[in-house]
Amino acid sequence: MRRPEVKRLVTVLMVMAMVTLMTGESGDASTPPTTGPHGAFFEKVSYFGLFRARRWMVFLTLGLLAYGLMFLYQRYSPPVRKRIRTVTATPKRLVQMRSSRFAVYAVVIVIALSIPHLVTQSYWMYLIVEQVGVWILLAEGLNVVVGFAGLLDLGYVAFYAIGAYITAWMTGVLPAPPLFHHAIPTLWVIPIGVLAAMVVGIMLGIPTLRLRGDYLAIVTLGFALIIDDYVGNQNGITGGGEGSLTVPHFSVNLGVWHYHWGLNPVPYYYLCLIFVVLFVVVFSLLEHSRVGRSWVALREDEVAAESIGINPLKYKVMAFAVGAASGGFAGVLSAGLVGNINPTMFQYQASINILILVIFGGMGSIWGVALGAVFVQVITSYMDNYQPWGFQINDLYMYIGALLIIMMIFRPAGLMPSRRRRREIKDFEETGEGHLDEVLTGDEI
Amino acid sequence: MGFAHFWLSGFDQIRVSFWAYLFVGLQNGALYAMIAVGYTLVYGVLGLINFAHGDVFMWGGFGAAFLTRGILGPSVATGWATVGLVFAGLIMGGLVSILVAVGVERVAYRPLRRRHAPKLAFLISAIGASYFLETLAGKEFGYGTNLFPAQVFPVGQTMFTVFNTPVRTLTIITVVAGAATLVVADRLVRATKLGRGIRAVAQDSETSSLMGVNIEKTITLTFIVGGALAGAAGFMYSLQSGIEWNSGVELGIYAFTAAVLGGIGNLRGAALGGMVIGLFGSFAVPFAFEGNTQWVEIYTFLILIGVLIFRPTGILGEKLGRTA
Q: Could you report the predicted ipTM of this complex, rounded to two decimals?
């Protein structure tokens, strides 16, 4: 056999070894090892799960089979590949046409409006709002900061926390008395929460946005950790680890017209949908405005942008504030929906999870980010609730981690890359140059 | 109790047991410094925050813990057995961590480098690797299991007493091992041909490849050095508080803070930053409200943010190529 084939065989076997480790029952290092052939071969858990012998044999055999199939595919691939290309060519061309893009928008909106009729279980509707809707808002907000302006913010969850805690404070369910000692209805907190998040965005932005790249990342991460620790420890103000009492549901009371969002998640779904559409429209208008183009200029080359009269700090702070708005709203919405808010919702891992949605969908692409958020959040909620194939929720991040690495290797620009990014990739593939080669030269993002 | 009184009583505590706080700080500082070296080397060469490094440290800790338990069992070692087991643990931790670190490089970074992925893709891949390693350890070794290595010396043993303060054996071993490995790593980077390769790639990868430096080999070497130190630190840490699937997260963040504080990309800076963070964290304990140690975290990050805003390149400045 030639060398590349041996290499591929080793790769396949190592992948299968990883799969063996990643599946099956969890181990426990404090249990004494089961000895003898019976322990090694027939018990599901023997010692810390590493020695699941049956599983090893099964998966390594599968690996050999997979290698055989790959070998055959390599040998007879050209006709198959050609076939695949012709099958996928037409839809690709359709998506790229302008008129059909409007058709896609229409279809998306119709689907979004009909979801409450399709999903009959109230539990799932609730999850759709809490796990998908709120996270789309968060991902779109972070997309403005990371995708449009190219500022790596690892503390984005702070804005979510601000929105949620402002809601709890204003509606009088925190130990701290509400402003003017007078609780207000949850719905009226929306503008206040959004504004507060934007103000905090500006306040955080002015000192930190002078930093670049990784330094900005670590400082924002630091802020996220500080806020997490702070709300978790100020029992007298934020309720500490216990969090708030129950935030009242949203309600409208306009004299003649009353409406109360109750335990039924469907009204929350529509409220969330309205704001998702609103933020998406605002963000996409911004993207193509003077401001959006300034962000792109700053992202690509800060010095050049400054030389043509773009004030870097001003536009960066603006990106922070704009991005914070949807995060703040997500906080208000989720406080109204969930009721009890506590620090576990706002740990710094949440920022990274939001970043994952952004990258997964396609940084800088509004539709891509929304798609990524829906995709990842639906899958994780499904796994969490139905636990197919003996899946354990504790292991979720193992699969997410593996997925991220695979994704970055094969599709680093995300599911639906932004147009600019697609162009860059194409340029690079055609000419072999362009500014994709950044890691070893040490340029900024 | 008033606010001023609280701060005064904090200073009072430090005055009374200054030496105890100092020794704890030195011990933690040595650990942070050892882990920070891995962050700083990789950053210097690749310009990349290796988020998975904290988990590399954790895996080393598990490896060493299993080895020492396997050798010694439930008994307590004394005399030369202690010396031998400490070395065995350090080496085993280092080996496991090297394996994991090089594995991460091979799987999560090298394919991306081949494809000229953008910088953020590397960061995401690193986060993915970190999640993966962390949860894999949880799955294999149990999510609730806090594994201690064998008792290579009696727990809580004190070696001698200084200024009426007992000095624990563990503190001495950690500080000595930390200092020794740091010196070796420093010499390796500064005074050997391999180290010259690392510095050359850190300065200018293209030119150094033209000069005949094998970039891929050099990158692997930086992961090996960083991994070895992290694994040794993993063993030391597990002796002190046991090792758990998520032990790497907090230590990783502290160590990364240390690396940035000292000037990321700068090996001596990482050592210095680690010591500063360790000592600061220890002396901040009396100022934690209601004895809650999360306040120490808050103080530490406030310091970090302050340093970064006023001196963004850290204490000793960045650039592995020029100053390492």
A: 0.84
